[in-house]
């Protein structure tokens, strides 16, 4: 993508000048305000298939300059939505070593330490994510809040390689692992709404599912994520740290946010 950033002159307030959808409707992320949520008893538990990848598969871990991205095989998919949504990649949003809050979605204005997104595309209707990314029913993203607490061995399956992709456009192959272990235990409690990509081109093409329960990683793991990466290329003279890569909450307008839980 282009040279958009999260701060400074090419920051999010300028995105709509090059990416018109960023200034449009149905934007993400949003703030989940508990008094405006609507309980929907028909929302089924999320069911994922083939997330337990075999270790002799390899995944590409990369630094996009905007996030750390793990490619995922399309035989992983979500089976509990109206169409089959096949996995494409997962990536993260985080704060910084000084500001430990970097989630994109918030709950009653409260921001978590970070947020993981598992991006899927509608493989019933589109051959690949590039064909799906700008269609109203193209994408489904699973959002997982991250908070600081217990060490998380599942995240270390690829966090330990993070120093191999310190600079923009660096990529390495890592052994696959059980991606289900990155998700919270309960997949039946979540927020659901129609939204967009949270980065340019901000297409309003995402069915968002954000799980209610966060997962935890240790402070050491969080600091590794928040301090290891650069948004600049290895050969650039000026190094630009990659942190605070979260978009601020957008207007909900008259969208309804559904929840699959009562209390
Ligand atoms: N928060 S978010 O909206 O889920 C989200 C990001 F935050 C994010 F950084 C990315 S990116 O890493 O590709 C860098 C900027 O596009 C994506 N990519 C998606 C949408 C764009 C095209 C594409 C093509 C192949 C695989 C994934 C994607 C993204 F969807
Ligand atoms: Zn994201």
Protein architecture, described:
This protein is mainly beta. It contains four helices and 16 strands. It starts with 14 loop residues before the first helix and ends with a strand. It binds the ligand NS(=O)(=O)c1c(F)c(F)c(S(=O)(=O)CCO)c(N[C@H]2CCCc3ccccc32)c1F and zinc ion. The site of zinc ion (ZN) has 4 residues, from strand 7.
Quick structural overview:
Helices cover 10% and strands 29% of the residues. With 263 residues, it is mainly β.
The unreliable regions are none
Main β sheet profile: 13 strands, mixed
How many separate helices? Answer: 4
Number of strands: 16
| Basic shape | globular
Structural class: mainly beta
Strand share of the residues?
25-35%
Average pLDDT rating? 96
Helix content: under 10%
- Distance from first to last alpha carbon: 41 Å
Write the layout of secondary structure elements.
Blueprint: H1 15-18, E1 31-32, E2 37-39, E3 48-49, E4 58-63, E5 68-71, E6 77-78, E7 85-94, E8 106-107, E9 110-111, E10 114-122, H2 129-132, E11 139-148, H3 153-159, E12 171-175, E13 190-195, E14 206-211, E15 215-217, H4 219-228, E16 257-259
Parallel strand pairs: 1-8, 2-16, 11-14, 11-15
Antiparallel strand pairs: 3-6, 4-5, 4-12, 5-7, 6-7, 7-10, 8-9, 10-11, 13-14, 13-16
Bound molecules: the ligand NS(=O)(=O)c1c(F)c(F)c(S(=O)(=O)CCO)c(N[C@H]2CCCc3ccccc32)c1F and zinc ion.
Features:
mainly beta; 13-stranded mixed sheet; 10% helix
